Each structure stands twice: as structure tokens, then as C-alpha cells.
Amino acid sequence: MSRHCLICDSIAVLPKDAALGIALLIGVLDGVLHGIRQPGMPTPTTDSGPGSALGELFEATLCGAAGALAGNQVGLLVSQDVAKFWFGSHNCLCLRCGATFNEQPEERSSGDTG
């Protein structure tokens, strides 16, 4: 079901749960990138042996995973701010006009009993 803004009838409507998921994902990805780029990470060299590239990849993976944990906490804080300041008590945000509203419940057909 496509959502339409109640004010401008735009279909550019962001549901609250999607916005929170995006904020959390961005926080985790930011943590991974910061973890990989931390100062202790070795820089790739061209004259290293065949096993050193795998070692560098392993080190980058460990640092990225550690950064993801920190980024997860930041993402949670950001998603709480998004919920509070962007949506308030509503569950939809129109990206065209900025209106916040609650999605209208789907109407049941007369054959539905439960």
C-alpha cells in the first residue's frame, strides 16, 4: 500500500520505523568506517608478502566490527532523536511539505470477520 500525504497528497512519505532503521544503519556504518580508518591500522604496502594482504584484511575486519559496536550505540541515540524531534507522536513524515501525521488504518472489506 502506498502512503499519501494528508496535506499535499505526495507519495514521498517516510514511515517512522523506516527512518529509525536508516538512522541506526548509518550509525553502524559510520562506526565501521571509523574503526577501519583508526590510526593504528597498518597501511597497505605493495612489496609485502602474499599473506600480508589477508592479515591486513583480517585486522580491518576486527577494527570495523569493534567500530560497529560503538556505531550501534550512536545510531540508537540518533534514532531516538529522530523519533522525538522529527516525528513526535506521529508515525509518518512527508518529505515534500514536512507534515507529520498518523497513517490511516486500512479499511476492511465487508467479508473480513477477524
Protein model, in words:
Helix content is 50%, strand content 7%. By secondary structure, the protein is mainly α. The protein has a three-stranded antiparallel sheet. A hairpin with a 5-residue loop joins β2 (92-94) and β3 (100-101). The longest helix is centred in the middle third of the chain and has 36 residues, at 52-87. The radius of gyration is 22 Å and the shape is elongated. The two termini are 20 Å apart.
Which terms summarize this structure?
2 helices, three-stranded antiparallel β-sheet, single chain, 3 strands, 114 residues, elongated, mainly alpha
Provide a compact summary of the structure.
With 114 residues, the chain is mainly alpha-helical. The protein has helices spanning 16-36, 52-87, and strands at residues 13-15, 92-94, 100-101.
What proportion of the residues form beta strands (DSSP E)?
A: 5-15%
Gross morphology is elongated
Tally the helices: what do you get? 2
Note the main sheet. Answer: 3 strands, antiparallel
What is the number of E strands?
A: 3
Secondary-structure map with pairings?
Elements (H helix, E strand, L loop, with lengths): L12 E3 H21 L15 H36 L4 E3 L5 E2 L13
Antiparallel strand pairs: 1-2, 2-3
Helix pairs in contact: 1-2
